[in-house]
Amino acid sequence: MIQLSNLIYKGLSEDTEVSNLVGTKVFPLIADQKTKLPFIVYRVSLLNSVTKDKAERFSVEILSFETSYNKSLALNEKAVNAIDNVDLAGINYKFIKGSAEPLIDTDNRFYVKQIINIKK
Fold first, then answer.
1. Using CA atoms, how far apart are residues 22 and 16, in angstroms rounded to an integer?
2. pTM to 2 decimal places
3. Ordered domains of the chain (ranges, CATH)
């Protein structure tokens, strides 16, 4: 899981379009409550289901926080594109886009929760 987490971080933090918006504010699991918008939080989970070919399955959740609904959608799109373009360095991961859901948190911050399913 750490290898995949590192690839996700690299993809998000090194992408020019993403970093132009969030700078270095890409966090695994949680961001400090005082972090100023915009920023991205990501989580990697290992799924327990076993596939016929004995492949490992992961779920990556990307939360793209912004100051407005439309900006959160745009940041999410850039984050997904960054993940699509990550250099896998010969590692056999298959990325499958899942759901995307626009939300607002208790502090009235807009964000999109994007799920990407991954098979290795």
1. 10
2. 0.90
3. 2-119 (3.30.2000.30)
